[in-house]
Amino acid sequence: MSDSHFRAADAVLSAKGRSFHWARRFLGERHAERATRLYMLCRYVDDIADEADSGPAALQALAKMKQDIGSGRSTDPIVADGIRLFAECGIEPGIFIELIDGVESDLGTVRIADTDALIHYCYQVAGTVGLMMCRILDAKEAAADAHAIDLGIAMQLTNICRDVVADATLDRRYLPATLVGELAPAAFLQPDTGTDAAVRSALSDLLQLADRYYQSGESGLAYLPVASRAGILLAARVYHAIGSTLRRNDFCFQSGRAVVGTGRKSLITLQTLAEFVLHRRYWQVPAAHDAALHEPLRRTSLRMTTLNARHVD
């Protein structure tokens, strides 16, 4: 990878993934570089969906990317570097194609029906990233995969709770109808009293659900190489703090995007590193993964084209 390409990837991470950029410094140099490159590739996919002038053009671009990933060749420098990264780390191309499938669904009418459908979506766009990070961090145990999926799902649930208004401006409703009814996203922009209460209640429920996935994600950290564990734990804790901010603000989704400032990140960093050193759960693999967390994936008949069944236990 050229220095100029890495600098470009680092700039993307710094500008658009500040929580991950903060935690990256606690990874080893090789793993930090790989993670930065993966972030740039994943962000590139997101930006195609979110910033394209037309849905058909975005779908065409994503279809071309899937074709390139499948063939192992691309004239797009970002995709080409992603292909090299997959080869370096042993990342199955089908995992990334699953991510693209999830992003493609954002280009249609986004009205999530229920929590199972939401977890399915979170797997596609973020659980897949967890799987790829396992390869990037040289996690050797297959048992790590389920926990990595869960950490990705947890972070995506946090994103959805944080970005209700931003998503509504794109005519997307990720909050399940089973929690908020069949509301159009526009209802979240100028909510009446009933809508406001329904959304706040949904955010409370979804953040509690995210807590379960965060717990599972953290319990699998012992499968990672020692030098990578603190960095991933810190990324999880900083992201988890976004949900804590929403809770402290009584789930007021209209008051601006919940963020974790530098001062609070510094405090979280100190607390996390101290806990990492002292708590034995980060040094002992868990007895078993909580299979109930993947029931929604089985119920929605998630297509796992190139993935072994071990990933959804």
From the structure above, extract its key features:
313 residues; single chain; two-stranded parallel ribbon; 1% strand
Protein described:
With 313 residues, the chain is mainly α. It has helices at residues 3-16, 18-24, 29-51, 55-71, 77-89, 93-105, 115-136, 144-162, 164-169, 177-180, 193-219, 226-248, 262-278, 295-299, and strands at 110-111, 172-173. A two-stranded parallel ribbon has the order 1-2. Helix 11 (193-219) packs antiparallel against helix 12. The model is unreliable at 303-310 (pLDDT under 50).
| H/E element sequence | HHHHHHEHHHEHHHHH
Beta strand count: 2
Radius of gyration: 19 Å
Mean pLDDT over the full residue set: 87
- Rounded to the nearest angstrom, the distance between the terminal CA atoms is 36 Å
Secondary-structure-derived class: mainly alpha
- Residue ranges: pLDDT <50 for 5 or more in a row? 303-310
Report the total helices: 14
Helix content: 55-70%
Widest sheet: strand order? 1-2
Q: How would you describe the shape?
A: globular
Major sheet details: 2 strands, parallel
Q: Which percent range describes the beta-strand content?
A: under 5%
List the helices and strands and how they pair.
Layout: H1 3-16, H2 18-24, H3 29-51, H4 55-71, H5 77-89, H6 93-105, E1 110-111, H7 115-136, H8 144-162, H9 164-169, E2 172-173, H10 177-180, H11 193-219, H12 226-248, H13 262-278, H14 295-299
Parallel strand pairs: 1-2
